[in-house]
Amino acid sequence: MIGAMTAPPVLNIVDVDFVRDGRAILAGIGLTVAAGQHWALLGSNGAGKSTLLSMCGAIAHPTRGTVEVLGYRLGRVDMRQLRGWIGHVDPRQPLDARLNVEQAVLTGVTGSNGWVPRWKPTETALRRADDLMELLGVAALRNSTLATLSQGERGRMLVARALMPEPHLLLLDEPSTGLDLAARERLLTSLDTLRAEHPRLASVLVTHHLEELPASTTHAMLLRHGEAIHAGPVDDVLTSENVSACFEHPVLIKRSLRRWTAQAQPVDHADLPDWQADDPNPLHR
């Protein structure tokens, strides 16, 4: 558990292990997310980020340990009902490409990948969809089909869709995947605006690129080989030393205008960092 909370946490993960086919994917993970906090999960491919996010989204159960989402413990709650209270943004979401943007956003109410036959949105749902499309900058595209959207437009539409059920927890699984620089910046600006206008919303964002973190990120966890090697307030965690250890390569971290950049450094074999100095495997050098 990270930090003391005066109110029940939105997400509470305690001593979690996850084992698949005899292999430990996660080991000893602990994480507490309070309302209004915005966490980033960072690590190289295979570090366990997506597996941890699947538990946050009530999709997977831990092998050992406890996961409480919105006050409900996994294993003691209807997972389908709980997932309806969580906003989930996944660029790989297989939505029906024939939907227009307004229809796709409204499917956030039904939790379906296509339009539900004979379902009719309420006036309240229509107004909320209008507000969210305006907030995320896709209102002018309401009648455009998904097949005609750019990756950036689709990404912002997916955030609006995820917010339709008015969730207390928003999960973002590499939301900048496939975006060019301008589209990425528009998406991150939209996330910053969203967080400012909804101060009680908590979020967890998965990425392995520091440049993809919104300026409003408050906390971070670094995962390496299924273990959390650092977690806490973002400025304490995202240091050159910590990120280098996480990615097992020297990295220089800089923060400017509240955003991060990472620059890989050349390896000096005569002066290996501590996390490599004792590694007997020459392939890791």
Written account of the structure:
This protein is α/β, with parallel strands linked by helices and 285 residues long. It has a single domain (35-46, 87-284), classed as Rossmann fold (3-Layer(aba) Sandwich). The protein is 28% helix and 26% strand. The chain is built from nine helices and twelve strands. The strands form three sheets. Strands 6-7-8-3-9-10 form a six-stranded mixed sheet, sandwiched between helices. A four-stranded antiparallel sheet has the order 2-1-4-5, covered by helices on one side. A two-stranded antiparallel ribbon has the order 11-12. A hairpin with a 2-residue loop joins strand 9 (219-224) and strand 10. Helix 3 (101-110) packs parallel to helix 5 (151-162). The longest helix is centred in the middle third of the chain and has 17 residues, at 181-197. It is globular and about 60 Å long. 38% of the residues are buried.
Describe the SSE topology.
Elements: E1 11-20, E2 23-33, E3 38-42, H1 49-56, E4 64-69, E5 72-73, H2 79-83, E6 86-89, H3 101-110, H4 123-135, H5 151-162, E7 169-173, H6 181-197, E8 202-207, E9 219-224, E10 227-233, H7 234-237, H8 240-247, E11 251-256, E12 259-264, H9 274-277
Parallel strand pairs: 3-8, 3-9, 6-7, 7-8
Antiparallel strand pairs: 1-2, 1-4, 4-5, 9-10, 11-12
Q: Count up the helices.
A: 9
Main β-sheet description: 6 strands, mixed
| Gap between N and C termini | 34 Å
Query: How helical, in percent, are the residues?
Result: 25-40%
Rough outline: globular
- Radius of gyration over alpha carbons? 20 Å
- Give the CATH superfamily: P-loop containing nucleotide triphosphate hydrolases
CATH topology: Rossmann fold
CATH second-level architecture: 3-Layer(aba) Sandwich
Total number of strands: 12
> Which strands sit side by side, in order, in the main sheet?
6-7-8-3-9-10
- Structural class determined from secondary elements: alpha/beta
Mean pLDDT, nearest integer? 89
Strand residues, percent:
25-35%
In total, the number of domains comes to 1
Q: Unreliable stretches, pLDDT < 50, 5 or more residues?
A: 1-5, 280-285
Instruction: Name the helix and strand elements from N-terminus to C-terminus, one letter apiece.
Output: EEEHEEHEHHHEHEEEHHEEH
CATH class: Alpha Beta
